[in-house]
From TrEMBL:
Homotrimer. Keywords: Amino-acid biosynthesis, Arginine biosynthesis, Transferase. The lineage of its organism: Bacteria, Pseudomonadati, Bacteroidota, Bacteroidia, Bacteroidales. Belongs to the aspartate/ornithine carbamoyltransferase superfamily. SOTCase family. PANTHER family: ORNITHINE CARBAMOYLTRANSFERASE, MITOCHONDRIAL (PTHR45753), ORNITHINE TRANSCARBAMYLASE, MITOCHONDRIAL (PTHR45753:SF3). NCBIfam families: PRK04523.1. Residues 184-311 form the Aspartate/ornithine carbamoyltransferase Asp/Orn-binding domain. This is N-succinylornithine carbamoyltransferase. Gene3D superfamilies: Aspartate/ornithine carbamoyltransferase. It holds the Pfam family OTCace_N.
Length: 317
């Protein structure tokens, strides 16, 4: 593996899960692998889990980790090509990226969709410039369209908790007051499609994800029907994809909040969410605090997914 930006980079999923299970059981077995290697974590957006879990993964592998918040202490970066730089952004990505690359061996980048241009977001304008100009392996720590470290952790978690070989997994939209990217659901769809699970997506009309991700998926607009017999409920909010509403909140319908009555329709399903989660918008206290909520072990597996990915990259440096 050179870069890690999507499910295709991980190779065979069953093998990847086996490697992750080994990493989880033997977290310090490869502590010499990253000796004298430096991981640089670049954040254009806020983070709790990704920031901590990716650092922890790098440290477990014996690497040094440096974190830079672009919007707190670094120069504001110009990202447009060919512009006259007379705005408040004194440095261009074209210099900043190779400079950052010269200080490290692996770069992690978090860069959300900006919702200014669907084309810019869906061409992964920032992430691709890091791949092009850093000269280093690049790990997506959530980009405009995907969050692969999260999806890999989700898969590891489902494999740990599943009670049958081919569980029914349901991705459900749920309400939220702010406009959120489509990266987590896109990515989850991509990873679930690569398994042999039964997979259903449910959301209100108008919240269809990009067909480039959902092609071939079962989409059920009746949330209660989708929940029937489910083994895992994966809740997430996302903003609209379709024009002219790209990036907008078009509904905050609280009837889509995941509550106990809906969970009772499932086959005693586990509740999952990538976090952070808005309680009593996305999910009721009763469900997230209940015995079938696995959001904490899911988040803990972010160290495992990151460490498995970083190990593979280190082995190929
Ligand atoms: N799930 C996730 O990526 O969390 P953070 O945004 O806190 O990193």
């Amino acid at each position: 593996m050179r870069h890690f930006t999507c499910v295709n980079d991980i190779g065979d999923l069953k093998e990847a899960v086996k490697k992750a299970q080994y990493v989880k059981q033997n977290p310090y077995a490869d502590s010499a692998l990253g000796k004298n290697k430096t991981m640089l974590l670049i954040f254009f957006n806020s983070s709790l889990r990704t920031r901590l879990s990716t650092q922890k993964a790098a440290l477990n592998l014996g690497m040094n980790a440096i974190v830079l918040d672009i919007n707190q202490g670094a120069w504001k970066l110009e990202t447009e090509l060919g512009v006259v730089m007379d705005s408040d952004k004194p440095e261009h990505l074209l210099e900043a990226i190779p400079v950052m690359g010269s200080y490290c061996d692996i770069i992690g980048v978090r860069s959300f969709a900006r919702f200014e241009s669907k084309d810019d977001d869906y061409s992964e304008k920032i992430l691709t410039q890091f791949i092009k100009y850093s000269g280093r392996p690049v790990v997506s720590m959530e980009a405009a369209t995907r969050h692969p470290l999260q999806s890999f952790a989700d898969l590891i978690t489902i494999e740990e908790y599943k009670k049958r070989e081919r569980p029914k997994v349901v991705l459900t939209w749920a309400p939220h007051p702010k406009s959120l990217p489509q990266a987590v659901p896109n990515s989850f769809v991509e990873w679930m499609k690569a398994t042999d699970y039964e997979f259903v997506i449910t959301h209100p009309h108008g919240y269809e994800l990009s067909p480039s991700f959902t092609e071939g998926c079962t989409i059920e607009y009746d949330q209660k029907k989708a929940f029937e017999g489910a083994d895992f409920i994966y809740a997430k909010n996302w903003s609209a994809f379709a024009d002219p509403n790209y990036g907008k909140v078009i509904s905050m319908d609280k009837s889509w909040t995941v509550d106990k009555a809906k969970m009772d329709l499932t086959d005693n399903a586990f509740f999952m969410h990538c976090l952070p989660v808005r309680r009593n918008m996305i999910v009721t206290d009763e469900v997230i605090d209940g015995p079938n909520s696995i959001v904490i072990p899911e988040a803990a597996n972010r160290v495992v997914s990151a460490q498995t990915v970083l190990k593979e990259i280190l082995l190929n440096l």
